[in-house]
Protein 1
Amino acid sequence: MRHIISTLLENESGALSRVAGLFSARGYNIESLTVAPTEDPSLSRMTIVTSGSDDVIEQITKQLNKLVDVVKVVDLSEAPHIERELMLIKVRATGKDREEMKRMAEIFRGRILDVTDATYTIELTGNGEKLDAFIEGLDRAAILETVRTGASGIARGERVLKV
Amino acid sequence: MEISGAEIVIKCLQAEGVEYVFGYPGGAVLVIYDELFKQDKVKHVLVRHEQGAAHAADGYSRASQKTGVCLVTSGPGVTNAVTGIATAYMDSIPMVVITGQVPTHAIGQDAFQEVDAVGITRPCVKHNFLVKDVRALAPTIKKAFYLARTGRPGPVLVDIPKDVTLATCEFEYPDSIPMRSYNPVIKGHPGQIRKAAQLLLEAQRPMVYTGGGVVLSEAAPQLLRLMKLLGFPVTNTLMGLGGYPGTDPQFIGMLGMHGTYEANMAMQHCDVLLAVGARFDDRVIGNPAHFGSVPRKIVHIDIDPSSISKRVRVDVPIVGHVPDVLEDLIRQLEPQISKLDAQALKSWWAQIELWRARDCLRYDRASEIIKPQHVIEKLYEVTGGDAFITSDVGQHQMWAAQFYKFAKPRRWINSGGLGTMGFGLPAAMGVQLANPGATVACVTGEASFMMCMQELSTCKQYRLPIKVVNLNNRYMGMVRQWQQFFHGNRYSESYMDALPDFVKLAEACGHIGVQVEKPADVEPALREAFKRKDDLVLLDFLTDQTENVFPMVPGGKGMSEMILAEEL
Ligand SMILES: Cc1ncc(C[n+]2csc(CCOP(=O)(O)OP(=O)(O)O)c2C)c(N)n1
């Protein structure tokens, strides 16, 4: 099963490699991993999308907690939560495709950030499925480049992850 | 007054009450060595190879409960120490490793003797630090000691660039360091402890299985009280030996791959299992699916939540400091102890005695060639069962574990988790330094011994009167045994054709060496050796080359699927 795990960790050099090293050493999957400092600059927030049986996920959370730099760990998938990912995509926009691209971006509530005679660069946010759907909806040949951030997540309602 | 980083390092070690540092100098740590030279509170033990430094610090810690310290230079100094660090990590030994590093401005430049010490050791330390600012040095060393010895203990590495050892700042050693990200749970959950007590009271076929956690957390007295209260059978893992007195009738031997028949059968057939400070590893319970195929309730007490339900699902997990949890459990059980099913226990013990009667450790006592088991039995007698025994890895290690009945914790010192050949001699140095005047023996095999035999020279320098018991079968015996059982007697590279003369080797290093060939000479040779309180004596026993360790649970098999001696 797919899980989205959020952790707060000390904003120390090396903290990221401890997490990445843990996942590779113990053979856990990483679908995506995002990390950036929080409003408290001494803390980073990391979101890891992973998958595994219940036993594996239990071990992942325990092993993460065991890392000395990790302050808190929650499995967001245990309760209602919001997930967002950002994608920047550069597409060919020539001839009749130019208008079509613009319409697609509008349907998906994307924003065109940069324009040339031949290309559009579109920004799109949403959950992973929405971004996948956008890509699916395009002619493959029209896609010049994509870059995705991986998912970030937060709990719905009043639950917060804080120290 | 501002002092240098190097002086800060030494002042921190003094503040921690460090008695010995095991180390080896080099460019990146010269400034620290210079400060070591200027004082005499912290004594330095100069090993002959950095692996030896790490093992010696580790052995020192295992035998004393204190945190072992080692100091090595950058680059090859660090990489040589890695085996020793990983050995300590696998067995949860508190250790602080101080490593020199190239100057901060040279880091990342492929400088001479540069290696990413923090990166290389990350998977085999509890935590590690690179100190880039001299002002962070004292707090970091404080953290290192705190992390190493609390919670589930382990090695912590502090990497110090050379310019940081030269830089100066005010020195203050903090009393404590708050760490919001590190708060090991100490107290067991009362509700869980109640549940555990209930299960134990209802048990028909109970079993208690304890590991290194009991030894490391100093829980042996509580364990003994609990066992006397319950009257249940108890087994120890290889790491847990001595955690429960090996001579007590409730003790049914070590369990696992080379555990006793009775211990492994009782593990497999019990209905309630209490696991304490142990981790159900592959050499202990064999195939987890086979183990899980029998219904039983499991209570698991451990300081490390990630050890619980890792390989085997448990019913009542209790995270906490083992002595405290056992204390709470005893308090729960005492008033209701009469609820135990005496009848059921009696028939369970009768079953265990039947298993015990198989006498699974039997060997040919009439042999005209020295049997290794005989040497260990005599070693036990001659030392009155009260020696510190270190070992290397192989058959000799298993025989020592099976035949030396450890009565106290911290007396059996071996590399259980990593299985590091070469551990025995340097570990014995640390053990002897931690216990001057005590009897220390290193049970080894000729192949293991040669992995760190350069430390014989260190033993001379520091006058460490260790007794080396070399069970010399001219084979990598454990490898040969597997090749015999599982690889059609093809003894691929497990025979060493050109062994040194161990007697001369001992003599070359300034020690006494004795070769023993006949069974009748085993005991006199041991007695003679142990009489020499001030000398290292290497006893080279030429043992039966074909002897195997029994019982044996083959890899991937279940605990009750043992091969016994008589079946071969
Ligand atoms: C550093 C290291 N290399 C290889 C092994 C694999 N190994 C395990 S036991 C063994 C043979 C040990 O031979 P010896 O020390 O003579 O002991 P014996 O089994 O004969 O008692 C080997 C090679 C190991 N445990 N450690």
Note: The interface with chain A takes residues 118-119, 122-123, 126-127, 130, 147, 179-182, 304-306, 309-310, 313 of chain B (CB under 8 Å).
Protein 2
Amino acid sequence: MTATTSDSAVTVAAGAPAPAGRRAGTEWSEVILKIYIGVFFLYLFAPLLVMSLAAFNAYEYPSVTQWRGWTLKWFGELAEDDRILQGIVNSVIVAVGVIGISLPLGLSGAFILTRLQSRFNNVLYATLVSPLLMPGIILGISTLIFWGRVNVSGGLLLTILAQASFIASYSMLLFMARLQRQDRVLEEAALDLGASSFFMFRRITLPFLMPTILTAAVIAFLQSIENYNTTVFAIGGDWTLVTEIGSRFRFGLSPVINVIGVLFVIVTVAAATLYTIQKERERKRKAALK
Amino acid sequence: MRGKDVRLEDVVMRFGDFTAVQKTSLKINAGEFFSVLGPSGCGKTTILRMVSGFIEPTEGSVFIGEDNMRGLGPARRPTALIFQNLALFPLMSNWENVAFGLEARGIDRKTRRNRAFELLALVGLQGHEEKTPAELSGGQKQRVAIARALAVEPAVLLLDEPLSALDLKLRQYMRAELKEIQRKTGVTFIFITHDQGEALTMSDRIAVMKAGVVEQVDTVDNIYANPKTPFVATFVGENNVLQGKVAQADKEYAVVETSQGPLRGLNQDGLSAGETAMLFVRPERTVLVNGVIPDNSFEAHFERRDLEGAYVNLFFKTDAGPFIVHEANRGRHGDLAGAAKVGFNAGDAIVMRPGEVDNE
Ligand SMILES: Nc1ncnc2c1ncn2[C@@H]1O[C@H](COP(=O)(O)OP(=O)(O)OP(=O)(O)O)[C@@H](O)[C@H]1O
Ligand SMILES: [Mg+2]
């Protein structure tokens, strides 16, 4: 971030060889900008910092003010907490299921809306996007009632269906944005060279969609993992990590929850770092080719 | 020779109420370099898309060889199209681009790779096989597109203004290159362009179109020497136009009474006395009168000259409009001023029924 600020400072200085009075004004606005960025990051990271510290505090409740000394015992407790561990596994199962349903559904919807220029496009679009505007609770309850009629009761399967009903809309919006940018002439060229529709899709359209498929999968995964409102109604006797944490609120939290938080932060940072390194390597390889 | 002939029989193409191509019948011979020439929006691409199968004609039929193409999609026609913007696949290497048609036909990787390398060599792109299209220059991309189209061994190659994006030098080079490829392969080429120079230098025959109507189909020589309509006369090459009423006419010649006096020309449309007419004469068939007096001559006001090196264009103003004389540069045009006498022979001028001219 500091790099960005100094960059913009350079642009300002280079772009405006202004009189001395202007110069002072520029410095002021720079100071304010820096303070703003500082506050912004404090706001963003302070809670994470507090939460992480509490995971290492030898005190019954998550706290940093009541400091009882450093400990790793909460990590040990997490390793023995079967409900939490099972909750993580369940969350991943649900997330994978949601990806499996949302991506094909979202892609189909996007194709229909971008390719078939039907008179009903507007109505169809509104219908397919409406789950995003619906409160999660309502989606959860209506899923439970609807599937209850056909004797599917609450559980992981129903949670997958309930979550997919709105996450598919997110996928659809992503795919639509991508498909609208596609050069349709490429598909015509493929057909002209003798490709069947299926071959064209596999060789031209799918590779073009690949980055969006990955993005949509990541977003669906994150949406699913963190979902509470819809899940809590559809989950029945089962549980996910989030519903488990939710239900423990009633009895007061233990720092085990903070340990989970710390682990999530580590995983996220590690993934982001790996991704950046990978991108950089690719860029260097490309540059070396030329 | 693997080219096939292409026939359009009473073909009409309408989009809603708009008729993009009026009733047209055309025969393009096997192995011919055929150009469709016309201004922007006249329906050239539409004709190409009917032949390649992306659209079906509203009326009439397209035949390739003996076969009626109705109902066959682009994948099942023996044609390959080179798109106006090339449409190379950006995520594939150049050789994969070229091999795409073979891959679609289920040919194994080793065979199609070898074939793609051969074709890229044919178009002079050795060493660029593993690069992607984004890493090539405009002319090189052009050649990948040609190789990709040739890979499926089409009987008919359709080219939609493929040279329009290139700079002049490269365009001239690629013209020769395309001509050479056509000669080597014997494939029927249908080449679309709005550049009359391009059409004249490359083609065996040309169809000149205007607003959905094919005005004339003929050999390059005939299109230039014997244009059938005022539009063709002015769109292909330069032409001087003089309007008036026919004063007298026989089978061969007609005399048109113009603001420059009576002028005689070939009576192409068989006009008779009293009808309005347009008389066309090419600048290179006119002279600055100097001793020998041609069949027709009149006074005109000299405006300026453009020196082209070996040739000069002399621009005159007349009551009938501008008049251009194109002459070999013999070093005697320097001191022209004011009025001068210009003229031409009757056998070099064509008298036609009036019509729309191309006014660029
Ligand atoms: N799918 C379509 N729907 C409606 N009108 C169309 C369609 N395709 C073409 N047209 C119209 O038909 C006419 C001819 O179009 P076409 O693309 O054949 O022109 P062109 O001669 O290739 O022009 P250019 O030299 O600019 O490429 C144009 O007026 C165009 O607007
Ligand atoms: Mg066109």
Note: The first helix of chain A runs from residue 2 to 15.
